[in-house]
Amino acid sequence: MAEITRDVLIIGAGAAGLTAANDLRQAGLSVAVLEARDRVGGRLWTDVIEGAMLEIGGQWVSPDQDALKDAIEELGLETYSRYRDGDSVYVGPDGQSHRFTGEMFPVAPATEAVIAEITERLDAMVAEIDPDRPWAHPKAEEWDTVTWDAWLRARTDDDEAVRNLAFATGTAMLTKPTHSFSLLQSLLMAASAGSYSNLVDADFILDKRVVGGLQQVPLRLAERLGDDVLLNQPVRSLEWGANGVTATTDDLTVSARYAILAHAPVLYSRISFVPPLPRRQHQMHQHLSMGFVIKVHAVYETPFWRAQGLSATAFSPYELVHEAYDNTNHGDERGTLVGFVSDANADGVFELSAEERKERILTSLSHYYGDEAKNPVVYYESDWGSEEWTRGAYAASFDMGGLHRYGADLRTPVGPIHFACSDLAGAGYQHVDGAIRMGHLAAANIVDAIRDAGPTESGD
Ligand SMILES: Cc1cc2nc3c(=O)[nH]c(=O)nc-3n(C[C@H](O)[C@H](O)[C@H](O)COP(=O)(O)OP(=O)(O)OC[C@H]3O[C@@H](n4cnc5c(N)ncnc54)[C@H](O)[C@@H]3O)c2cc1C
Fold this sequence. Notes:
Blueprint: E1 2-5, E2 8-11, H1 15-26, E3 31-34, E4 46-49, E5 52-55, H2 66-74, E6 79-81, E7 87-91, E8 97-100, H3 109-127, H4 140-144, H5 148-155, H6 159-174, H7 183-191, H8 196-200, H9 202-205, E9 208-210, H10 216-225, E10 229-230, E11 237-241, E12 244-248, E13 252-256, E14 258-261, E15 272-274, H11 279-285, E16 288-290, E17 293-300, H12 304-307, E18 310-315, E19 323-326, E20 335-342, H13 343-349, H14 354-369, E21 378-383, E22 396-398, H15 402-406, E23 417-419, H16 432-453
Parallel strand pairs: 1-13, 2-3, 2-14, 3-10, 7-18, 11-15, 14-23
Antiparallel strand pairs: 4-5, 6-9, 7-8, 11-12, 12-13, 16-22, 17-20, 17-21, 18-19, 19-20
Helix pairs in contact: 1-10, 1-16, 2-16, 3-6, 3-7, 5-6, 6-7
The protein binds flavin-adenine dinucleotide.
């Protein structure tokens, strides 16, 4: 068993952990990043599948994501815009596809009026919420004890309006059934992106991509750390106390003054803590769970939809693939569509054989783009639910009532153990931007703690 000693050990080489490690290094501290997988990036993973470069995990950057935009610029990466010329497509309750432009789905005028009115109300509520402290809102408890679905249904009996309103934070973002999380959790999701309207606006939330893939961010951050990033090192146990921490993997022991747990909170229980974490953390962590979405990639010889005047932006709360976009790579002659199958629909298609699942998914895409969508040259499903070191997508959220009950303790350090992950973020919550923000925050808190503690016995 090899042994190393550092000032800070970081568990997880995703965007959060690698950001923290770089900040700590810049502050003059030594670090070791222990990563369970054989690669860095976590939920950022750009790979070549059957000759097609695919963003298996996160990929889009939106204009409000300053922490991510700063990292992209500082790392010397280039961005490009998502293709968006032409009409969008909406499939309504009648199963018919309708072309539209702008943000409002082509629904009946009465439904449109209901959607507009409730959207305005939601924007006002979101504006009152501090995304970093949603539990501090005077109505936090009231809003955290009504489901997102029930709150919407109490506003209107227009089912199509409810489905379209519920969609943005539910199926499309938290990727959980809308009866399983609260109004407050939904408002946090919207507040983390600036407003409910921002979240609904695909041109905002899915604005830019990085040339060469978003995994370039963690790859370049890791490059700077060199040998201090150790792959294939799942941390099995973490001893902690007043004198620091010791992490043990299958073949390595790392001792440090501080640790940062930089991975999804659903995985905290994979580590044996000695002594156990406090009661509050034991309880809180059980109320956080991952959403579940399949990201489907379909590559065609040409972006055939463009010739039909379609942008490929497509939505329907009635379709298996509830949203889809043009995801053609920068400078690529072939055309790529990306679509998403969420929560209970994802459970359902995983009951089928791989062939049947592919057929059902491509048939759903064909409802937006016609029969040509049924014959991609490359087809791939990102299934993060079966990834041992992630266990779902996109990220974790609280169950009913959990956010106001536990939220304030989400990022509170436990002795020398600090926490950083996109799933704990306020601004940038569930996004790479949030992961980077949490990485900066954990590193800054440790630097402050070391400064406050003064010189150690060894004089450093
Ligand atoms: C399909 C998909 C699409 C997405 N789309 C977008 C998007 O378009 N835009 C966007 O901004 N965000 C998107 N996201 C979300 C974004 O990718 C994540 O929020 C972000 O990458 C999380 O970063 P992180 O560092 O907090 O955690 P992670 O990326 O999960 O990194 C944690 C790391 O810790 C490691 N680890 C876990 N346990 C241990 C252990 N015991 N020992 C050692 N290592 C361990 C894991 O292997 C992992 O590498 C998407 C996510 C998915 C899955």
